[in-house]
Structure formats: structure tokens, C-alpha cells
What does this fold into?
Amino acid sequence: MKQIGLFTLFCILNISIFAQVPLPDEQILKNFDRSKTYFLLDDNIFGTYNNEIKIVADAYWKITKHEYINKDGFEDKKIEPLASILFLSESWFNGNKESGKFNTLSLNMGHESGALEKMPSVVEFPLSYANYDTEHYAYKLGLALKYMQNQVTWMKAHPEIKDSEQLLEQLKNTREKTTGKTLYVLKNEMDRKMQDPAAIKKIYSGKVKFVTKEEIEELIENQDENALILHLVAPDQDVNGFICLKMILGVADAKLYYFDYHLTVSKLKPGAFLKSDFQELSKIK
It folds into this structure.
């Protein structure tokens, strides 16, 4: 069971991933470009988040200069409009608290009032359901940071997308060819019917390989251009929630190849990558 540090609790914003809230406007994005990004560390000395986020931020955070702060540093920086702060928060899907609570990487700008609810949001990335600890998602933190930077760049190029509901629709329409790529997945993130390579092959002709978390982390470190991974945010029998988010990302550049979500209210649709997802992948030409 997850032990949440005081910094995480202190920094919880009422963020609702994909709810109809405005995306950062041109001025906020310009302010972000001029900012230094401060990674807020957790005060849970027994946790592994601080070490993991330092390793991946130093390796993959390229869009702004960055440094690390604790609670006192956060108090100073949250009132600076040209300070961007990246921290762990908790959020809900589409404003529905019954859907389940997520661990989320949140990137926000400071606000002169110092009020958390007024700090402009730049981008969020759901890591897992909130019941899980850092070990559940740490191996993908580097890819999460790459994706967040990509998303900032994408928003600058698409000012016509005004709110997160439009963004969700855009993501759902993302379908990129996986020809020549290998999809690396954890076997336990597949629907039971899809845990047999032969069953997958009947539906999807692309390469799929079952691997461990350690092997995925190594793929990310090596920036394998022909590797794709599944990022799954799903509940299980010990976790309250009914939203299953599915993203397929390129390991080298965090390019989004596939995005979808489903409700896990039926035994036919558990919190896993489904047969129907492979069918969708097979349709991409």
C-alpha cells in the first residue's frame, strides 16, 4: 500500500485529468519557456521517488533549466509567475471522483497569490492509481518526462485546441503505424485472453514481446528507436476505480502511437490491454 509523503499531500490540487478545463494559453506557454523548472521532492525519506526523479530529470529534462526543491523552496517559488514546478499530485478522471484517484505528474506555473488552485496548469501525466507506490511506475518516469515535454511543444503548435476535452478527443484519434516496431509489454497488463503470443498473432501481425519492468527501463535508457511500450493505468481488485487508460509510446522519443480508455465495469473489459485494442492496432495502415 502506498505511503504518501507530506509534500505530495501538501501539493494535491483538485486536478481532473481530461475534464473540460482550459489548456494553457499562449502567455502561460511563453512564461514556461522563460522559466526554470523546479522538481519538488517528497519528504518521505523511506520512499524512492526522490532518487528516481533526480536520475530521469537529469537525463531527460531538456526543455528548460531545472533544479530540485523541498517544501521550503516550494513556498518561495509558488509565488513566482516565471517559476515552473513539477510535482506529484493526485487527480481524478474527467472530474469524477468515483472513477478512481490517480498518481499524477503535474507541471504548474507559480502564481503571485501563492494559492495552489490559481497556479496555472501546463501539463499533467497520469502515472498510476493512487494506491500504488513509486516502484509501480518508477521504471517509466523518464518516458513520462519526455512525453510531457512533447505535449508542451504540441500545444504551442495547436492553439486551436482550447480545453482538455478537445485534447482528449485529439488523443483518442491518434493512431500511428507500428510497422517495423516491437511492442514490449508486461504480461500481467494483458487481458488473460491476450497473454498467449499465438492469440495475439491471430489479430495483430506486428511484433509483441513480453518483458519485465527492468527490461523496459533498459529499453528507455538505450533509447531504442524501434521499441514501443504500453503505459497502462488501471485498477485491480485491491484498487477502487473503473477507468483504464492505455497509451503506446515510442521509447526513443515518447511519440504517442495509440491512446484509448475504457470502463472496467464488466468482466469482459478488465483493467488490461484488450483484444479490441490489438484489433484497433491492426487497422492502422
